[in-house]
Amino acid sequence: MATNNGVSNGLIVSFGEMLIDFVPTVSGVSLAEAPGFLKAPGGAPANVAIAVARLGGKAAFVGKLGDDEFGHMLAEILKVNGVNGDGILYDQGARTALAFVTLRSDGEREFMFYRNPSADMLLTPDELNLELIRSAKVFHYGSISLIVEPCRSAHLRAMEVAKEAGALLSYDPNLRLPLWPSAEEAREQIMSIWDKAEVIKVSDVELEFLTGSDRIDDESALSLWHPNLKLLLVTLGEKGCRYYTKNFHGSVDAFTVKTVDTTGAGDAFVGALLCKLVDDCSILKDEARLREVLRFANACGAITTTKKGAIPALPTESEVLSLLHQA
Predict the structure, then answer these.
(1) Residues 119/65, Cβ–Cβ less than 8 Å
(2) What is the pLDDT along the chain (327 residues), one digit of tens a residue?
(3) Do the beta carbons of residue 23 and residue 36 sit within 8 Å?
């Protein structure tokens, strides 16, 4: 941490999609049975940006929205939450992406997407705010932006520019299989940029998908290791997380909370981690300090599951500290 009051100075730029999830007013029913839906703004990269800002960090979002009411609403949500919007673009011809989400009775989710194509898919390399991207200390992204052109080329260009400018590259594949033409294509494209990232976070489900193994153990995780990697994280839901660096590995337990909706928990975890790393990458070489940061990140993820929707549930630093003190 560069300052004593916990406020981060380095900019975290999050790249990718922002959309609206329509969530049934009743849990545990199919989309067809849902009596009504609530609008829940989301999209993993945008959630991460807001998670960072809510914890007192500096965040910016780069992506394309529809020039429609929903697109302007999403841009306003970023602004209200203190996220720099200089990287936001609007598409005149395409709509903001929508997703209908089923909340199963166990809090897990199923998705039905409306993107044919949506504005986020139409971002071109020429439209990128390169000045903003070059000012990033951390550049964070997912894999949904790799699915189709021209957004894929914009993603690759943004990564390259951020890396050249000295940013730490952070990758959360955030697998959404229904969006990919096939599972094979998803695996291939997610892995196509694997060796560029220095921090990678995968869920237990993504670990199984990417390795083709049903074992969630150290051997399976380390099969994803690459020489440029500084930190590999596997999140295990209510079982906490595992961490792997060049010199050490281990696990950190989760916090027990009453889970209502798991949406955004992984994004809160990533935002918290990046917030702590952005001004002090030496944490990656110090196991005791890394464990402390991951405990903080686990607390952020846990709090996010106690409320419906991602963005309203993302915690402030004081909420996290209060959970840490109770534990």
Answers:
(1) yes
(2) 344 445 558 999 999 999 999 988 888 888 888 999 999 999 999 999 999 999 999 999 999 999 999 999 999 999 999 999 999 999 999 999 999 988 777 767 788 999 999 999 999 999 999 999 999 999 999 999 999 999 999 999 999 999 999 999 999 999 999 999 999 999 999 999 999 999 999 999 999 999 999 999 999 999 999 999 999 999 999 999 999 999 999 999 999 999 988 889 999 999 999 999 999 999 999 999 999 999 999 999 999 999 988 999 999 999 999 999 997
(3) no
Burial of 101 (0-12, 13-18, 19+ CB in 10 A): buried
Instruction: Using DSSP bridges, classify how beta strands 109-114 and 98-103 pair: parallel, antiparallel or unpaired.
Output: antiparallel
Q: Rounded distance, CA 324 to CA 257, Å?
A: 12
Token couple for 37: 């839906």
CA–CA separation, 303 and 299 (whole Å): 6
Amino acid identity of 176? R
Question: What is the CB-side half-sphere exposure of residue 91 using CA atoms within 13 A?
Answer: 20
**β-pair type (241-244, 249-252):** antiparallel
> Under 8 Å CB-to-CB from 128, ≥6 apart: which residues?
62, 87, 154, 157, 158, 161
Distance CA 239, CA 255 (A): 9
- Distance (Å, whole) CA 165 – CA 130: 10
Cβ–Cβ under 8 Å, residues 177 and 183 = yes
How far is residue 53's CA from residue 317's CA, in Å, rounded to a whole number?
Answer: 10
- What pTM was computed for the model? 0.95
Structure tokens at 10: 């380095």
**Cα separation of 76 and 62, whole Å?**
14
Residues designated catalytic: 267
